[in-house]
Amino acid sequence: MAAPPPACGSTPATSAPQHTCGRGTMFLWALFLVAMTATYLSVHSFVDTSSRYFAASWGGLHWERQIRASASPRRPPGSAEGAGLSVLVTGAAGFVGMHCLLALCKRGDGVVGIDNFNSYYNPSLKKARRALLGSHGVFVVEGNINDGRLLAKLFDVMPFTHVLHLAAQAGVRYATENPALYVHSNIAGLVSLLEACKGADPQPAVVWVSSSSIYGLNNRVPPRSRTTARLRLRLRLWPRLCPPRA
Ligand SMILES: NC(=O)c1ccc[n+]([C@@H]2O[C@H](COP(=O)([O-])OP(=O)(O)OC[C@H]3O[C@@H](n4cnc5c(N)ncnc54)[C@H](O)[C@@H]3O)[C@@H](O)[C@H]2O)c1
């Protein structure tokens, strides 16, 4: 009768089976490690993606209903002031944004705001402004104008007729301390918004106020259009950004 093969770990009869068994075990361990690493990576990326999905503060049927309710004009088409507009206001929780939203809302226009509630000015002040707007039926989305997916979704949910662009990193002196923030919100953010407007159907008219203060060292009030390059740019862009509407 043939002798049974030696079990791994038992004393081998010869050296050859020991090598075979050792290599086989190492191969199995290597395979096991590769499988574990692959599993870890795929689970990790799944958890990462889903946590980002669940952490998003926008989206869903209820959110879309809030957008439509807030953005639908309340002025009847036959009224003396003409049909109501549907306006997306960026920088809605800011000083100028909140007042513009209230004024448009009182005129009977439909409005939705967007703001990232950054901490340059006190965020609790911005939250209080959002609460005040909410009491007038105005919905403010917490989000960034650099978020192309969010902007596309907003235009998908509501065919805005106008965009009033006020979101910006404010403060002239702070720009020398943190220039990247200005590039992010005032330049990249503007481009992101214009790209979203370009892709929207129908395309909204865009009103861009300014990327920041324009006073400079100028003593002349009001400033002349030759005073600063930024003002010149603003005036040059104005007709292009606000094409006459039929
Ligand atoms: N208030 C003034 O005296 C004055 C003067 C000149 C120009 N401006 C310009 O008018 C506009 C509004 O001014 P304001 O006084 O209301 O400023 P503000 O700082 O009160 O409001 C701007 C809002 O934009 C938001 N914001 C910034 N970056 C954003 C981003 N990436 N995505 C979404 N939201 C973002 C901020 O959270 C803030 O609530 C700005 O463009 C500002 O530069 C204001």
From TrEMBL:
UniProt keyword annotation of Acyltransferase present: no
Pfam family membership, one: GDP_Man_Dehyd
Segments forming domain NAD(P)-binding: 88-224
Chain segments annotated as transmembrane: 27-47
InterPro entries the UniProt entry points to: NAD(P)-bd_dom, NAD(P)-bd_dom_sf
Family: Belongs to the NAD(P)-dependent epimerase/dehydratase family.
PANTHER family tied to this protein: EPIMERASE-RELATED
Official protein name in the record: NAD(P)-binding domain-containing protein
